[in-house]
Fold each of these.
Amino acid sequence: MSEYRAWRVYEEDGQFKGRIEALDTDDLPAGEVLIDVKWSSLNYKDALSASGNKGVTRKYPHTPGIDAAGVVLESADSRFKPGDEVIVTGFDLGMNTPGGLGERIRVPAGWVIACPAGLDLRQAMVLGTAGLTAGLSVAALMERVKPEHGPVLVTGASGGVGMVAVALLAKLGFEVEAVSGKANASQPLKQLGASRVSGRDRVDSLPGKPLLKPEWAGVVDTVGGAPLGRLISATAHSGALTTCGMVAGISFESSIFPFILRGVTLYGIDSVEIPLARKADIWAKFAGEWAVDLSPITHETGLEGVGEAVASLLDGTHSGRTVVRHASA
């Protein structure tokens, strides 16, 4: 069947509007693997694409969706055959290549990962790019920090990356403090395993000094900006921080002292262009020893609900993870 449905964004009179329409599979771009998408998920980058952010998507009309999980329909690559369950996240999917908010995608084989045993397609999209980023963050943190070293902090904890990080760290035995600016975040974060939930002032009130009293053995930072500089100063000796976001800004101020007097390590986390083998390793962990229950924070919608969900991402009222179920799922 060559026709499929997609939530497609158009630029009309200077405004960007999304709607469901029927498209032809033959019009998809070239690629070795054609996939029948069963599930997708919504991320802030999808909302940026849907609202006309030219730093994310250059040309419209466009189908967003940086995450997709589905079944191979056709493959010119011997690693995949029709019927295989696969995952695609990152690279250019949903940015300038039609993404997971369409029922079909055609992509390079180098973007495709076999869905590991123990993880179904819906579970993969509950995690999505947010979960992959959280997993990469925790993996980096654990190169230096173990549960017995002391408490860890997660910033932006009511966002997708933050919530998965809280759940995963708690499962792995860490004492987790979660920081969120949302008044209603405490209960779901404690359900996920947070020992303590604090407001943004927990970090914003820290003095801007080169070194502060050590508060945390490790930090998973999802917001960037000025808070990151304060957190570096408050990280314990031989501790580590990871950073993956910029909602609080693209720059921060720090001194050399935490690095040369305490041996603190700062890891930058990229989940988009990393080697496929690294992505596959994290997915395999989520299918096994890292399996986490995210049902308390998961919302499900069809294409009909995408517009409303995108609006909530843009106005800051969205929380948790939203998965998009396609008709064939």
Amino acid sequence: MKSSHILLLLSLASTGAAAFELGAPKNNNTDNLVWTGHLSPDTDSVTSALIAAHIYGGTAVVPEGINPESQFVLDYCQIAAPKPLNDFSQKAVGLVDFNQKTQLHPTIDESSIVAIVDHHAIGGAPVNMTQVTPIDIRAWGSAATILADRAESLDIDLPAHLACTTLAGILSDTVVFQSSTTTEYDRYYAKELAKEAGIVDLKAFGQKMLEAKSDLSHISAAEILTMDYKNFSYGGKKVGIGVAETLTAQQLLDRRNEFVAAMISYKETQKLDHLFFAVIDTKNKRANLLWIDDIDAAIAAKAFTGQPKQGWLVLDGVTSRKRQIGPAIQGAIEGKK
């Protein structure tokens, strides 16, 4: 498939060292190279690190522990989990699935970043590099899709277990093609990867992933709050947005008091200006939004039109933090809404 996309190469300032090349892996120095996603890694972040390491060399790592869905995927695809890395100093670092300082492991020096492959907007507080750094950002449904395209364009074969995990990254971030962020490229590469992985029914595989993600009954509210969580900088304010995608939304909605207590504690300890949490009902395609104080209530009132129910704001048709929840909150905080 010939993709029509814009490859954004940001050459900020030359340091004299050879720049990393996303289009010519053999030219790169991979000594001490690691590939990592954002804090609170999700399945797209984990699987993108794996395929990036396969294409470009280096080692896939995670900055924190992985979630139940990601563990299910790794077990299903029969591949070892990337090792957690607590200290990124002395490492050359490739970033996948994010570009924000607020989501960067605190030990990563921005001068050590050699490449970024992402599908999110460059807004808020992007990493600030003084070295020549290739950045491939496309408005596709997942970073895994972009890297699958990279592998195809470079004529790099993926073993079945990596085809499997890369497929999972696409299915996870597009919510099995239900998300508004889904593109024709996501659908195309999902089908191709399913063939390579020997997965006959990719939607059935995606359903199993959703079920693995949905079983949160044994996990505390504090853990769920930060399991799929990102910090943003909007209008100079530190904003946290956590989401939990689930087929069994009512189980989480019934735990509202637990989430309120967890959010009060987290907002104070992290010194956040704003904090929101959404239970994404993937079965009924809607978000249930929660906040804990009048300041955030005012932001939510500007950002959304929804129906309150049992202490949650119900947002029909809202399923994406990247495309819907985050931009709406950003617009409200920055006075653009």
Amino acid sequence: MESILAEARTDSLLMLFESAPIGVVVSNEEGGIEMVNACAEAIFGYQRHELLGRSIETLIPQRFRRRHIRHREEYFTAPRARPMGLNMTLMGRRKDGSEFPVEVGLSHLELDGQRLAVSFISDITARVEAEEALRQQASELERRVAERTREIERRQQVAEGLRDVLRVLNTARPLEEILDLIVEQASNLLATDAVAIYRQDDEDGQPRIQAARYANTDRFGNAILSGLSGEFAFQDAGSADSREAQDWRPASQSESQEIGMTHAGRFRSVLAVPLNVKGEVYGSVCLYYRAPRTFSQEEKELAIAFADQAALAIENARLREQVRRSAVAEERNRLA
């Protein structure tokens, strides 16, 4: 009767072993595999007979096998139930050679005088992928928050810069000083490598520099900017509300002899906006960049805002000059 009960208990344990929803691999002190259950077969892609008698290291990537042999031998000197590779990323190796993350718990037993190690193995690929997706989502959220914060700070800087220029526009400061402030603010807020305000010469119609920042004016002071002077910068482009800043393409080798700032590829991109003073094209604001790039709509709108301010400063200077001349003329007439 006792033998029957013992046999029944053994059968029950074998059924429990076989139906366990986790991979179970039993190995001896030499690392030979003694038993595997159905879940372990499914996890590693082997048939049971292909694993029995083989080394437990068969289920481990090649680069980890030598170290695992050392750990296995150490485990049998003081076997105990514990997780394997705590705070480490453990990898398993399938029959087809593919690798995947695993979670392993260790235990031990003695059967017929033989000490055995029992490995409880879970494929945690889905969990790792979910955790990675969460990390990426958190990272993306942090990036967006940081980007939004920078954008808010930038908009505040833009607003403050424009207010500074507007305050100066309402003063009687010289035109040159106002234009210098405009190019300084444009350079800072649009991160240019150089910026210049050009004026169309009244006599020959060529562009002349009125203000510049971070640029050698001797190199391009009287340059004809190919692609800007004809088609865009000095063509009547309508009101400030309807015009758009346009991107400049690098000139050809033959054109580069006339470009000045862009000579020999010194600057690869230019954002140019015409200056309209009461419907008359006065000149242009040119923003220069050494690297090829495109410009966002916001950057174009900001460039237009600076161009409008420059145009307003020019118009105010013209009006002050007219008032001055009128006052001089009146004084002369009075004295006459």
Amino acid sequence: MRVAVAGFGGVGRRLARLLLERGGSHGLSLAAAIDSRGHAVFDSRGCVEEALSAPRGGLAGVSCGAPGSGPGVLRGLGYDALVLTTASSPGTGEPGLGYARAALEDGKVVVAADKPPVALLLLEHGGPPPGLFYKATVMAGTPLIDLLRVGLAGRRVLRVVGVLNGTSNYILNLLMEGVPLEEAVEAAVRLGIAEPDPSADLRGVDLALKASIVAQTLGCPVGPGDVVVGGTVYDAAGWAPGLRGAGAALRYTARVDVAGCRAEIGLTLHGAGSRLYSLPGSLNAAVIGLEDSTIYLEGPGAGLGVTAATLLSDLVLSRRAGGKPPYFPAGL
């Protein structure tokens, strides 16, 4: 299977390395990459290494590169699967949405880490369309989406409550220790946990997208704009300090209620008996309520390495049954 990568930043490059190291054992090869200014069709390992050393947006300048990007470029790439590591607008889903539509319409597999186009594609198709794999969009290093789509086949999911944004969890943990918000944000950026501008995480834009994706995976047509926002991390700056001493923890959570097809995000307090009470650093966690039991899932939700590895996992899955997802219908 020949793989093209749209979005050749940190995650895209980490995936390219994984494909060079492990792709052959899974029948995968890196065919091409696209960035914001150009593209490269890889005809040798040397050209891949050259692209990996190029600056961001520099694919057009490598020996196997050329100017031009956008969905129209896909037609000449000779690929079987498209990986989306683009950074798309939460409002329009572009540029990732255009790439994904073009690839799916051409019968290709799409493996995505980019949340806005996935949330909008799910809404357009009334659930996951054939050929779309997207577990890297939510709890990137922990297979929540696969659990909901595969592991719980035939089970009735009532609700999902989760801490699904590592940046906000890391910052809230520092706030509860008495660290001022500005210093907490600076620490998160310095460690690479947060983007240089983490406002999308702190205002709930990222969390609302994830809540929408989880809801739609479970058969509820909840778009990102339908998610109820009940507060932001900024609201916690004044009252988070001291909560630990009072035996409480503050989390920025998403809640999806399947029966009512409702999704909401907001700040929630958790006592020592809650599964979400002890969640250090930037860890993610989800509590899945079933009609007869509860499942707790915890693990990394972000990071270049775990996201790239999860994309590789979806590529391996996509090769089963001629590229059709080995999943049951989303509606439970």
